[in-house]
Amino acid sequence: VSDATWTLHPQLAADTHPVARLGLSDVLLMDNAANPWLILVPRIAGAIELIDLDEADQHRLLGEIALAGRVLRRLHHPDKLNIAALGNVVSQLHVHVIARFTTDVAWPRPVWGATPPRPYGADDRLAHIEAYRLAFSDAAPRTAS
Amino acid sequence: VSDATWTLHPQLAADTHPVARLGLSDVLLMDNAANPWLILVPRIAGAIELIDLDEADQHRLLGEIALAGRVLRRLHHPDKLNIAALGNVVSQLHVHVIARFTTDVAWPRPVWGATPPRPYGADDRLAHIEAYRLAFSDAAPRTAS
Question: Cys staple from B45: which of A98, A107, B4, B5, with CB 3.0 to 4.6 Å?
């Protein structure tokens, strides 16, 4: 999939750092060290609702969500994954995949708006991104692209 | 799919009213009139994480999520759908499918914990459930069960 007219929403770009390019989605790291938090953005121009993707793209996206979940689990051993497509603030379709811990600051509440974001320090951010890149390149998505 | 050992978590039972039985999931109505809010619970004993379902069940669940989204859209014409699998409080796998409006009380924040639940009045609840039942029986899921 390569949609030449797709561009990342500037608010998502401002809140995140790029991690990887999967078959359908760009993977971004939310700049909030409170939780390991990835965002998948399918490169489909104009997409807003998950359920409006055609079934093949829904299945590809789900495969990439599962991959992101496995990456977070492998690197962080969370107590729970949170997966959500909300889009109330930025309507461009994006899916949150978040590692939650019973010890994290928002637990058991959802993370959105729970506390002000705590940006990564530069070294910490680069280390996380590098580890994610390695894990994504290492793991094959179940749904081939 | 019929998992004889599956039972609905008592907290989910307490917070909701039964609406429909789909091929994989039970559909429940969250008893909060602030938003039209359905919960899908796959009848798979012990399931906690969406990404741990086998791929066929993931696709079936996604088909039922899409169906619930179409039902909410058809009946309520929301401005946005919110879809989420969180499970921080009740770990039994369940997926929220919520109709959001730019005029709803929590907008644009997520609905969880935003305001105390506002239970339906009895007549209103029955009318909603009846309308959902009709809409679910009327619409075929894209993923056959």
Answer: B5
CA-CA distance, A4 to A8, in Å (whole number)? 12
Q: How far is A123 from chain B (nearest CA, A)?
A: 30
Contact map slice: B 124-143 vs A, CB within 8 A:
142-143
d(CA B30, CA B18): 9
Nearest residue in B to A89, CA atom: B108
CA distance B7 to B4: 8
Give the Cα separation of B124 and B128 in Å (integer): 6
Q: How far apart are the first and last CA of chain A?
A: 8
DSSP A134: H
Report the 10 Å Cβ neighbour count for A15: 19
Instruction: Quick: pLDDT tens for B30-69.
Output: 999 999 999 999 999 999 999 999 999 999 999 999 999 9
- Other C-beta atoms within 10 Å of B120: how many? 18
Burial label for B102, CB within 10 Å (0-12, 13-18, 19+), is: exposed
Closest Cα in chain B to A52: B66
Query: Looking at beta carbons, which residues of chain A come within 8 Å of B69?
Result: 49-51
> What pTM did the predictor assign?
0.94
Instruction: Kindly list the residues from chain B whose CB atom is less than 8 angstroms away from the CB atom of residue A107.
Output: 88
Element holding B74 (H helix, E strand): helix B55-76
